Every structure is written in C-alpha cells, then in structure tokens.
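Hi L., both proteins are below.
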Amino acid sequence: MTRAVTRFAVAAAVVVSACGSPTDGGPSPSTPAGPVTSAPPAAAAAEPNAAPTRARTIREYIATNGLQETVIHRGDAGAPSVDLPWMDGWEDAGSLTPEWAYSAIVYRGDRPEEYTPNIVVLMSKLTGAADPQGVIDAAPGELADLAGWTPIGEPGPGGRDDYPSYRLGGTWVQNGVTKVVAQTTVAIPADDGLYVVQFNADAAQSEFDIADAGLTTVTEQAIILP
C-alpha cells in the first residue's frame, strides 16, 4: 500500500490554510494531517478474532482489502481525465495547486470574508479486488472524524449519472474557527483498477452557499472521460 492512502482521510478541510491558499498547511502524500495522526491503522484497531465489519473509511477499506493505491496526476497515461466546468467567479489555482492534487480551483468573486473558498480534486487508482460500492459505502467516514463535525443536510448520491458517487457536507472546527466542508466521492471502474475521484470544497462558515453551489456544479458537470 502506498503512502498516498492518507490523502483520503483529510479532504479539502485540512489542505487549506486560514488564508485560503490550497498549498499552505496542506499535507503531502507522505505526511498525514488532521484526524489521521490520531487514528490507528485499521488492522491494529481490530480486536483479535473479531468478526469482519464494513470498512468505516476509505483508508480502512484499502487496508482491509490489501489494495495498492497510486496517486494520479493530470496527464498520467492510462488514467481517466477530469475537466471542471467554467463557473463565474472561480479560476484555476495554477501554481497554488498542491503537488499531490489532480487539480484545484479558487473563488475570486465577492465573498463575505477574506478566506478563499476552494475546491481541490484528488484522484487515486486502487489495484486489487476493489469494489466501487465498497468505496462509496466507506466514503462518509473521513469527514466524520473532523473535530466538531456537524452534518448539514442529508448525505446521499453525488449527482452523477455515469458512475457511483456519494456526497456529504457539514461544519467542523479548526483552531477555534468553524468552517464548512463538502465532499463528493466518485468511483470509476476501469480495466486496470478502480479510480477514485474526490471533489473537496472548503470555505468559511459564512461562505457555505458559495462552496455548496460550486461543488454542486463541479460534481454534476465535470467531464470524466475513462
């Protein structure tokens, strides 16, 4: 299993600093952040001879099933492509895109706070007996580990007609500040493995409408070509 497994435990919520730059304070694939640092490995957390249970997070699903994870960057040969739609007020993060991310966009329109709403796209390939529904079932677990996590609305299907997907959102507390995060996970079966894409929106609590609208458009209109 590669070091990139930690990527799915942090979402956008901990890859963005208080100033809103997608690179400041963000974890690298080899540096866990947020709840990952205190969460035991799935194998270590299980009681001896305990009956098998459904993986609670994607990280646990990867470990439990002995899958190999490979970080995918834009342009990698053989990998699906993800093209984000144009949205008023949003622009490509350019050089601010984290090196471990597939892509990222930031909001430059009018907003109530100095914090910059952003959407970070992650992609990994899982090699082995990976089941798309198993990944989707485990998708909600990462955000639930965030400090002070409070769900907003009802989680459920992510709005994709082409691939299995799951979306949820809520608030959490970072350094005493309440923030909002929303996430859509998409499972893309392929001949060489299962590709998992996550769209992660992050914003200040007062910017929820901006982040929510942005993620909805990205999730529903992003062009994913296998």
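That was the first. Here is the second:
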Amino acid sequence: VDQEKLTHDITRLVVQLEQSLPYKAGLFAELCLDALPDIQRSYSFASAVQADAKVSFFFRHVPGGLFSSFVQQRDLLGQGI
C-alpha cells in the first residue's frame, strides 16, 4: 500500500492484509517477498492493529543483507509480501 524511505537506512512499508490480524505490542511477523521466495525474515509490527487490516513495518538497511537491501532499493508497491 505504501513504501517510504524515512532516513538513509530506514524504510517504512505499509501492507494491506486480506483480513485483520490480531496482534499485540512486541509480536512479530515472518515476512517473505514474492521476488525472494526462499528468504524469510522476522520483523516487529510498527503499528497498532488497524480496522482496515493495514500493518506497518520498519526496515533498517543492513549492508550486505539481501532482504533489507531489496526493501530499501526496490519499489515493492503491488508486490506480494
């Protein structure tokens, strides 16, 4: 739904889920990208539960990190996550 580079190494990604997902502070999601199907990474939810089933994540770029580099350098809008 939205991807925004907040700083030189932090990207925020807002994802639209098919249905609302109940979660609490401190929980994380196991994420994978359609473009990198064999790589999964755990990220903490960066927003409270939303009625519209949108969730947010912050990604810190790790030099040499395949997943975080992909999120920082590519346009992921419309991609499967």
